[in-house]
Specification:
The chain is mostly helical and 460 residues long. Helix content is 76%, strand content 0%. The longest helix is centred in the last third of the chain and has 35 residues, at 307-341. It starts with 14 loop residues before the first helix and ends in a 6-residue tail after the last helix. Keywords: Membrane, Symport, Transmembrane, Transmembrane helix, Transport.
Length: 460
Amino acid sequence: MADSATPARASWSGKLAFVLAAAASAVGLGSMWRFPYLAAKYGGGTFLFVYLVFVFTIGLALLLLETALGRKTGQSSIGAFKAFGKKYMFIGVLMSAVPFIIVPYYCVIGGWVTKYLVGYAVEGPAALADGGGFFTNFISSGSESMAFMLVFMALTYLVVALGVNKGIEKANLVMMPLLIVMAAGVAIYALTLPGAMDGLAFYLLPDLSAISPELIIAALGQTFFTLSLAMGIMVTYGSYLKKSTKLTSSVTQIAGTTFGVSLLAGLMIIPATFAALGSGEAVAENSGPSLMFIILPQVFQNMGGMASALGFVFFILVLFAALTSSISLVETCTSIISDGTKCSRRRALVIVIAFTTVMGIIVNMGYSSLSFIQPLGEGSSILDFLDFVSNSVLMPIAALLTCIFVGWIIGPKVVIDEVRESAKFKLAGVWTVMVKYVAPVVLVVILVAYVAQTLGLFSM
């Protein structure tokens, strides 16, 4: 299946382009709705503090590992592991499966975001703030939800089709700064609402007595999810890096940007919903899609004349966050296909588009004509099942195997030497301990906890 027209491997134009692209990948729906919900559920400032610690310890260590592995081999995840021997290729295969599973259902949710953006512009805030009827009717509509999913997919495919430099770099250069500015603006306005200061105190002031095993596991899981670890994304993006780019400072900036946007997301959502609902517990009870698509429209509606503008701006920035992540996922899938089959990037993208679109249609139908399929029990959907397989099973396993591979098989020195191609890496000893001992234990705990939670044996 080789293609004689296979072009030279793309590369980032510079360090800023890489940092923006990697941070844009990390900043997605996980930051926009999952983080605020978890922070509200686990004591606000307490969760924020623990998450901060994990991002800049274990998160940073694994971010550096994956990026360095990609840059050293110049390959996406399958090729990166295969470069050390065919018998290790299965680790890359497991990691590569994650983006292919996530992209279809992520685009379905991206379609929901697109619908709400259009809804605020066309139908007005009152129509969306009806207690859940608008959302339920839309996702179960079949054809309408399908149409918005395809619009979101088309936007994603277009950017990836334009290439690493003309597409992904330029899109991130526009969307990321706008996302941060708009998030800051909405957060500042939210803090002016009556009662918002109580929500701010709840969100920012930690109560260390509130630390629990459930909080720690939730914060660890969020760290992996928001930093795009074990998805093949950072290996792929690392493979586009020039040897002169300093990996240590780059990954620190990526982690810092990701934490900063998560912090802003919480500032946008928690004080406003805290003021509207009266407590962090009330916010936490409305997790996932219901927080964004049911509760927040009601909160915006209560803001009177500002409801339309706030709702519209909020869903623009959520759309940007969703797009930057879906772009990185589709790019990773494209790179995996291209590297694995030696075909051109264009042909690889066509294969990815065909697969993602068909799978997205099936996932979307899980709320309408295929709603009778409930893989995880009564009330679950195809989307829930794919989310469980990718985030709760494959990602922890892939990350665990990666740590064992680098820490105990090829040895940390391989990655350390790669990092030192462009930076001093004074904390190489600490990083080695993290990869060899700390991360594997943590990943086993996360995997067991997630599986036990799904089976009803553990509550988080």
